[in-house]
Amino acid sequence: MHDETADEPTPVVTGFLRNRGEVLLLRRSDAVGTYTGQWGGVSGFAEGDPDAQIRTEIREETGLEVDDNVSLARSGRPVRFEDADLGREWVVHPYLFDCETRDIELSAEHDVFEWLSPTVILEADDDREPVPELWTAYERVAPTVRSITADSEHGAASLSIRALEVLRDRAAIATAERAEFGTNPDGEWDELAALARQLLEARPSMAVLRNRLNRVMAGAADDSDGAGGAPAVLEAARAGIERALAADDDAAATASERIDGSVATLSRSDTVLEALREGNPSRVFVAESRPAREGVAVAEELAAADDLDCPVTVHTDAAVAHVLSREAVDRVVVGADTIRPDGAVVNKTGTRTLTLAAAREGIPVSVVAATDKVSTREAVNLESGDRSAVYDGDAPLDVLNPTFDVTPADCIDEFVTERGVLEAAEIDNVVAELRAFEEWPDR
């Protein structure tokens, strides 16, 4: 951010780069004219279009390019405030970006950077002094119950992390408010429990979101002093995010060891994508996965990956049986939105067709997922997509556009998890463990 003076409100941009539940915070150096030594996001004067300017600032301050390793998650309403010490009014345009890497190149405007939970901005005992209204700017773009409910682009594992971020952020606010309003563990618990239940209802079909929230709340309720207040929820949510990310990583690592030869897959599973990149496939076939065609995006990522040196082929969903019958495919590898207690798998529509075709051709099927994706419920709500994605004409037609289908357990050869390879009969043990977390109390 370059220094300038003006009588009118000064428009600036602030971008938060997010990676694995943490955001990039940077300490402003002596090269800048305001807020030297304080911590903020990527920022700069909005000399024209703020949407274009934030991309310029990211490139100049981190060496990263938007649409390469960085993608826009959300933009928020501007934050307007006056700094009396400077005699200046600011209008901050906040942005949140998802970032695939933590490797950045600092410009002269900053001298230190760290990837941290955004909640450190609120911590009074933290020695990193934030620039004014940094938390307000973050709140304008942070995940919410509404954003999780409306998200149709990301998978269940990703949305489970977003849900834990929502709970973590609110617990941090409640913890910080103790300085002003005093300590009230029961009241804090009631507020955070109500938020957790809203998050549970945001995507009721996603078992992984439910299990990870329940684990956090159960852990907070059992904290050492028995209070179960905001600090306990904050600590449990932070630990829950770390545990969830590690489980997904470990499931991918386990799967990568089993990927050798030609592989077929569909839709988007970040865990499967990582397993393919870490494994040793000789060829990858990807069904396009309509209507969002996320399979095409996956194929493009694999084809561009420096750590994957094999042909990548994309094909229509309707061609999966044909591809398996004509091509030398050694294994089908898919993710899971939910694993039912009986071992059946709920996943993107087309998974059932792919696995049935694999069974016909004698091709083994591996489902790659953390055990948190096991559902404790027999019944699963299958979400449907927009009817216009199938038919937008005027004829009086009924339209079906299921976005998930159910693959029977007998079409699946193995479940590849962070605990190793499981068979369908071993799912019962996971179910019993996860059910124990559902009993966290109302206070």
Automatic annotation (TrEMBL):
Segments forming domain Nudix hydrolase: 8-138
Domain of life of the native organism: Archaea
Pfam families the record matches: IF-2B, NUDIX
Biological-process GO terms, alphabetical: L-methionine salvage from methylthioadenosine
A single GO molecular function term of this UniProt record: S-methyl-5-thioribose-1-phosphate isomerase activity
UniProt record similarity statement: Belongs to the eIF-2B alpha/beta/delta subunits family.
Stated name of the protein: NUDIX domain-containing protein
